[in-house]
Each structure stands twice: as structure tokens, then as C-alpha cells.
Amino acid sequence: MATKAKIAILGASGYTGADAVRLAARHPHVEITALTANTHAGKSMADVFPHFFMLDLPKLVTWESVDWSGLDAVFCGLPHGTTQEITAAVLKANPKIKILDMSADFRLRDGATYAEWYGHEHQAPELQKEAVYGLTELYRDDITKARLVACPGCYPTATLLALVPVAKAGLIHADDIIVDAKSGVTGAGRGLKQNTLFSEAGEGLSPYSIGKHRHAPEIEQEIGVAVGGKVTINFTPHLIPMARGELCTSYVKLNGATADDLRQALADAYKDEPFVHVAPKGVVPQTQNVRGSNYVQIGVFPDRIPGRAIIISTLDNLVKGSAGQALQNMNLVLGFPETMGLEQIALFP
Ligand SMILES: NC(=O)C1=CN([C@@H]2O[C@H](COP(=O)(O)OP(=O)(O)OC[C@H]3O[C@@H](n4cnc5c(N)ncnc54)[C@H](OP(=O)(O)O)[C@@H]3O)[C@@H](O)[C@H]2O)C=CC1
Ligand SMILES: CC(=O)N[C@@H](CCC(=O)OP(=O)(O)O)C(=O)O
């Protein structure tokens, strides 16, 4: 594409939308043409996010007032449940536009599973069928051809990148996986919530949605695709007192393999992947190694219990866990080099 691609970012007054702005603003082939908000519509981006003082950005408007003609791609950083009808309206106005959805609205492939976990029938079932699951490293070819990319949640991205290659190779028992996950509080969005107040999240570690988090069926769906069968996993997320970052510890039962075999299988699977780093033996992944970057780091360790291993994976929930992966997918659907605009090194410490 010779001229710059024109993009809109829906939900730009939220955390994922703002990180999409941060990344897209420095992408050499992108022009940010429209930014939307709900309660913040009418404000400038610098009013809502003062750290954008150096950028000349469009004013925040409601999504209904955007002119979709002439746009090449749209990032959706909207609460789950709101994106289905908005996406349908956008695609009706411009059927050629590419959608990079960061919400959960199009990730589950099965309508009944969606209704069970999200409490209502899907509002755009045809689009749900059309959507491609946007975990870049697993579905690159399909994403390249897609019009609607359902970018995975932060927990599924971290977990699936750690587990899919070893489950697919039969090195672990896919029906005996325990995932213990921790997320920084930006994972819960920018809206005011009691549990993300500094006084309540700042000095504690809180498990939530124990045994029933809506990302469990998303993870099960994709491990199920990898092994060709139905699987159930045990998944417990925790809110941890840091702004951004996520770390998942997966406890697995080995199927005649060793921890070294798992590490080698992961290293082989990701040897050409620009954003997945399989740590050498003994190197412990930590959130600081990936904060602010689009990288994922994975480490494998033998368990003291014979026949078991522990896989640790970490990412930044607002980058590889949402806006970065969406931009990576935008690069694919618009034909730009996949890593363009995404090669920032982690902000350490
Ligand atoms: N935060 C994270 O780490 C991750 C989030 N996600 C998903 O991405 C999506 C966005 O998350 P996040 O950025 O954290 O959320 P935020 O709550 O920070 O932002 C939500 C955005 O959506 C706008 N909005 C809210 N309601 C409506 C509506 N009814 N119609 C139109 N716009 C609306 C808000 O506008 P206003 O501010 O003006 O009210 C705001 O711009 C969610 O689906 C989330 O689950 C996915 C992966 C990681
Ligand atoms: C800390 C926190 O609250 N995290 C969010 C997950 C963020 C995310 O990835 O949610 P989506 O599936 O909607 O994209 C949660 O547990 O619901």
C-alpha cells in the first residue's frame, strides 16, 4: 500500500484503545483518522490521556458519527457484549474494512458456548462464524486473509502460546492442565471499579472468578483444536498489584516426555517467531522482561513430582495481550511487515 492506511480506534479512551493509539501513532504506514469514546466523546485525547500531549490526534467522537468510507482498518477496544452490533454496522457501511477486535465478542466459535458464558445469544452469528481467532503465531495464514480478526484475551494468549505446541505434539496430557494466572490491574479496564482502587488492589493478591472464568472455555476451545478433541482445564486468575503485565504458571502432566523435551518442542515451534522467546534452561520468565513490549517469554521447569512439569509464560496484557497483537494482525491483513511498529524492547525495570 503506497499511501498510509487509514485506521479508526474504537474505545480510544480506554486502556487497550490508548495502547493501540500509542503503537499506531509511530507506525510508519498508518494514519489515525478517527477515535471514539462513549462518556468521553467530545474531548481531546490529551484531555483523557495527557501523555499524548505531543501527538496531533483526532478528537474523540461517538462511533455513530464516524464516516467509515475510505477507512482500511478498525481496532475495537470496547467492552464485551457491545462489539457485535457495532461491528455489524461498521461492516454494513464498509464491507471491505478490516476489523481487529480486542474484545471477547467473536472469539468463541460455538454459539451455544458463547451464550452459556456471556449470558445472551450472539447478536451477529454470521460474523461469529466468519471471524478468525487472532492468535498470530497459530493462525497467521488465516488471519492474513481475514476481514474480522477476533484477537484473543490476554490470559488465553499467554496460556495458549505456552501449551498448544506441547499439547499438539502429545508431550503432555491435555486433560490434566492447571493454569494459575496473575494480571496487573489494567487488565480490568479504566472504568472505576472498587476492586481496582489502589487502596484495595495495591497491597494484596486477589483470586477471582475461581473455577468459572470466561477465558477457560476460550483456552479449552483452542487446546481442543490443537489435540483434535474436547478438553477441560483448571484456570484461576488473580489480580496482582502492578499496572500492566501478566504471568501464567501452567502445571502439566507429562506423557512420557521430560521438561527438556517440552522446552525443545517450544523452541522448535517458535524458532522463527519474532515475538516469542523460549527462555534457556534455568532462566525464569518475569513480567519485567516484557513490560511495554509485544514479546512473550516462556520457560519450562521440571516439577519435583515425577511425571510433571511447570511452564511459565509472561506478556504485557496491553501489548501482546491486546493492542500489540491487534497491530501485529493489522500488519498481516494490510500486507505490512508483521513486526512493523512493534519492536519496542521491554521497559525494565
Ligand atoms: N485491559 C486489558 O488488558 C485487556 C482488555 N481486553 C478487552 O478489550 C476491551 C477493552 O478493554 P479496556 O480497554 O481494558 O476497557 P476500558 O474500560 O478501559 O475502555 C472501554 C472503552 O469502550 C468505551 N465504551 C464503553 N461502553 C461503550 C459503549 N456502550 N459503546 C461504545 N463505546 C463504549 C469506553 O468509552 P468511555 O471511556 O468514553 O466511557 C472506552 O473507550 C474489552 O472487551 C476487554 O475485555 C482484551 C485483552 C486485554
Ligand atoms: C484483571 C482482569 O479483570 N482481567 C480481565 C481480562 C481482560 C481480558 O483479556 O478480557 P477480554 O476477554 O474481555 O478481552 C478479566 O478477568 O475479565
Structure description:
The protein is of the alpha/beta class. Helix content is 31%, strand content 21%. It has 11 helices and 14 strands. The strands form 2 sheets. It has a 7-stranded parallel beta sheet with strand order 3-2-1-4-5-7-6, sandwiched between helices. Helix 6 links the parallel strand 6 and strand 7. Helix 1 crosses helix 11, helix 6 (136-145) packs parallel to helix 11 and helix 7 runs parallel beside helix 9 (215-227). Bound molecules: NADPH dihydro-nicotinamide-adenine-dinucleotide phosphate and N-acetyl-L-glutamyl 5-phosphate. N-acetyl-L-glutamyl 5-phosphate (X2W) binds next to strand 10.
Count the strands?
14
CATH class group of the largest domain: Alpha Beta
Small molecules bound: NADPH dihydro-nicotinamide-adenine-dinucleotide phosphate, N-acetyl-L-glutamyl 5-phosphate
**Which homologous superfamily in CATH is the superfamily of the largest domain?**
NAD(P)-binding Rossmann-like Domain
Poorly predicted segments = none
Major sheet:
7 strands, parallel
Output the number of helix runs: 11
Q: Structural class of the secondary structure composition?
A: alpha/beta
* Strand coverage percent: 15-25%
The total number of structural domains is 2
Distance between the termini: 38 Å
What is the chain-wise order of helices and strands? EHEHEEHEHHEHEHEHEHEEHEEEH
Main location: cytoplasm
Function: Catalyzes the NADPH-dependent reduction of N-acetyl-5-glutamyl phosphate to yield N-acetyl-L-glutamate 5-semialdehyde.
Subcellular location: Cytoplasm
Pathway: Amino-acid biosynthesis; L-arginine biosynthesis; N(2)-acetyl-L-ornithine from L-glutamate: step 3/4
